[in-house]
Amino acid sequence: MLKITNLHASVEGKEILKGINLEIKAGEVHAIMGPNGSGKSTLASVLAGREEYETTKGEVNYMGKDLLELAAEDRAREGVFLAFQYPIEIPGVSTTNFLKTAINQIREYRGEEQLDAVTFLSRMKEKMKLVEIDQSLLSRSLNEGFSGGEKKRNEIFQMAMLEPKLAILDETDSGLDIDALKIVANGVNKLKTKDNATIVVTHYQRLLDYIVPDFVHVLYKGRIVKSGTKDLALELEAKGYDWIKEEVKETV
Amino acid sequence: MSSDNQILEEFTSKEYEHGWTVDLESDQAPKGLNEDTVRFISHKKNEPDWLLQWRLKAFRHWQKMEEPNWANVNYPAIDYQDIIYYSAPKPKKELSSLDEVDPELLATFEKLGISLDEQKRLSGVAVDAVIDSVSVATTFKDTLGKLGVIFCSFSEAVKEHPELIREYLGSVVPMTDNYFAALNSAVFSDGSFCYIPKGVRCPMELSTYFRINAANTGQFERTLIIAEEGSYVSYLEGCTAPMRDENQLHAAVVEIYVKGSAEVKYSTVQNWYPGNKEGVGGIYNFVTKRAICAGDHAKISWTQVETGSSITWKYPSCILKGDYSIGEFYSVAVTNNMQQADTGTKMIHIGKHTRSRIVSKGVSVGRSQNSYRGQVKITKKADGARNFSQCDSLLMGSQCGAHTFPYIDVENKSAQVEHEATTSKIGEDQIFYCTQRGIDEESAVALIVNGYCKEVLNQLPMEFAVEAQKLLALTLEGSVG
After folding, report:
1. Under a CB-based contact definition with an 8 Å cutoff, are residues B131 and B11 in contact?
2. Chain B within 8 Å of A102 (Cβ-Cβ)?
């Protein structure tokens, strides 16, 4: 589904990603871990098409397409979804209205008919249960005055509504208490199929107790320095990141 | 079919009635402005002598006045002798199908979501759709007539209800009020008149949209609304279709007289031609709008969405004379390219326990300049008066300007006056959040701006609000990148 080859990216002239290689197949869950400042969020942003990030080298092939050539909205329309680490507030625009606009633009891009109000609402109702989100929250201005937990749940709700092929969760666990974390993880798990893939970007192992990854990659100084199974995450939890830093030093 | 024919006949005879098919040449005043021009207009309209004298008085006063220059707008000096002050509306060339209509205009209609029938009517295509809208207008008049509501053109009111016009004309905006109001008083061409009898709640939104000929009332429009005690009316001005008017100067006057416990809601969506990207052409919209809450517990609410005109100079105001009367002003003003807007309101608190609320949302794009100018005056006798003002500015890009000029004048110690102002920019991160969900940049900007204006748009009647939203999106087109 996704093949990243030797990806380099910089922001404001500073190189953050220094040659990422990663392959993700449909049905897989990949966790990307690493210490602060290692480039995890940058990788998520670059894949989603944030303009401030300049890709200087490398390729990203997504379902046979050159992902880097696509505008951010077209990536979304092709099925790439980013759950933001810090969801943005849009005053005066409800989640409902926001999603209706998004879904209809995506459908138009795919040559499908606009979703009628009834279908839209019944889909909303169904997905609301999934992340245990309340209707009243969806009628309020998007993310404005939401608690940290509400914002993250809202992200997963949007993901449920948009049914992406490739979902990237950027530190979705940050700022969540254990109950909210379970709800969010539960939502993500239910959305998992054999046809979609998930990238979970996280600093801590905690989330991975609930969203069990098929592969774990450690990102450090803009490179993936170690890959393994979920046991790697446990090892990191037990030992911290220092041993990885040491290993990297030795090999350099 | 026979009723259709009848309607059709009514429609066509209406045009004759207004003399639009007589020789064009004689239906136009010579260029320039002097007492003869004023006489010409009054004569053309068969006005009674008192009205001619009223016009002449206004004209003589206007001659002694100077054009105001305090507004934060720049434009070349207007040569008032180079304007034709009266020109009967050009008979529309009848088109046989939409194929003959300017494709650009059609594209705009499409974006506004105006129905096909309405498109035909607006572009002057002679088909069944026209008949439909005439019948709508007729049914409309019947319903209103039964309640005693008068809703007609200003000229018609001068003929049919001279006593009302004589009593109220100039009672809220005196002919000497300001330069443009005096000019309008001298040469106004036509406009709308509305009267709601005591205790009547007008059952429908009164819209100039439904009134035939409304689009052709000319550049010096005059509107007078009278709400008797305990009555209610919601009045919609203008239609949201783009009006390709060639007249450069528009100086309209709107007067609203609200008696005790009556309420008037006046909504405007203004979309005059704004000029091209370089600022060539476009309307100068210099409007005087004022309402008086003459009796206790009266209420007036202004809502305006201003997206057009190259220059806007407009301050819908409220004189809160009755005790416990309420004035409200909700405004969205969007300027793009080279547009300039200096708009706001005046809240004059005279009665005790009067309340006013101002919510102004400015959006500046391109190289435009957008100013809010508002006055809150609490006079000595206005015990317990309260005002709340909120003036927000949203900027897009780095070449536009947003300005706020609040004037607060309090003469009574018991008054409570609050003023809040914010200035913000649409953030890259907001746009990225939208594009990441599959929304293109232009729609993202429209969505964000609509959200920002929501508090004001919510004040508009439903169908109007929907069109206003689309209009905002249209105005913002090309503002990204």
Report:
1. yes
2. yes
Q: Do A98 and B437 touch (CB under 8 A)?
A: yes
pLDDT at B23 over 60: no
Q: Which amino acid is at B274?
A: P
Give A103's contacts in chain B (Cβ within 8 Å).
438
Taking the C-alpha atoms of residue B122 and residue B133, their distance in angstroms, rounded to an integer, is 11
What's the CA gap between B108 and B104, in Å, rounded? 6
Pairing relation of β-strands A90-94 and A141-142? antiparallel
The answer to whether B221 touches B190, Cβ cutoff 8 Å, is yes
**pLDDT confidence band for B13 (50 / 70 / 90):** very low
| pLDDT tier, B3 (very low <50, low <70, confident <90, very high otherwise) | very low
Instruction: Using pLDDT thresholds of 50, 70 and 90, give the confidence band for residue B268.
Output: confident
**pLDDT level of residue A146 (50, 70, 90 thresholds):** very high
* Encoded amino acid at B393, one letter: S
Q: Is residue B185 within 8 Å of B175, Cβ to Cβ? A: yes
- Closest C-alpha to A202, from A52, A192, A184, A190: A184
Q: Which residues contact B251 (CB under 8 A, 6 or more apart)?
A: B180, B181, B183, B184, B219, B220, B286, B287, B288
Tell me whether A99 touches chain B (CB under 8 Å): yes
Sign of CA dihedral B420, B426, B429, B434: positive
Query: Is A12 at the interface with chain B, CB within 8 A?
Result: no
Amino acid in the structure at residue A173: D
In angstroms, the CA B419 to CA B376 distance is: 10
The larger pLDDT score, comparing residue B271 to residue B208, is at B271
Q: Which two tokens stand for residue B108?
A: 């705009």
CB contact under 8 A, B440 and A105: yes
SS3 B236: strand
CB contact under 8 A, A93 and B453: no
The strand order across the sheet containing A215-220 reads A80-83, A166-170, A197-201, A29-33, A215-220, A223-228
Residues of A in contact with B443 (CB under 8 A): 101, 105
Q: Is B263 left (phi over 0), alpha (psi -120 to 50) or beta?
A: beta
Chain B residues touching residue A73 (CB < 8 angstroms)? 435-436, 438-441
User: Which of A72, A92, A109 lies closest to B432 in CB terms?
Assistant: A72
Q: Which amino acid is at A232?
A: L
- What ipTM does the predicted assembly reach? 0.95
In 3D, which of A187, A192, A198 has the Cα closest to residue A158?
Answer: A187
Name the residue facing B436 among A52, A82, A97 (closest C-beta): A82
For chain B, say whether A87 makes contact (Cβ under 8 Å).
yes
CB neighbours of B34 closer than 8 A, spacing ≥ 6?
Answer: none
Instruction: Collect all residues of chain B within an 8 Å Cβ-Cβ radius of residue A85.
Output: none
pLDDT at position B210 is 42
DSSP-derived 3-state class of residue B418: strand
Q: Do A102 and B438 touch (CB under 8 A)?
A: yes
Residue type (1 letter), A226: K
Q: Which residues of B touch A98 (CB under 8 A)?
A: 434, 437, 447
Sign of the C-alpha dihedral computed for residues B294, B326, B391 and B419 taken in this order: positive
Are the C-beta atoms of residues B380 and B360 closer than 8 Å to each other?
no
Q: How far, in Å, are B245, B252, B370, B443 from residue B285 at the CA level?
A: 12, 8, 14, 29
Please say whether the beta carbons of B115 and B133 come within 8 A.
no
Q: Give the integer Cα–Cα distance in Å for B46 and B269.
A: 32
Q: Are residues A59 and A68 in contact, defined by beta-carbon separation less than 8 angstroms?
A: yes
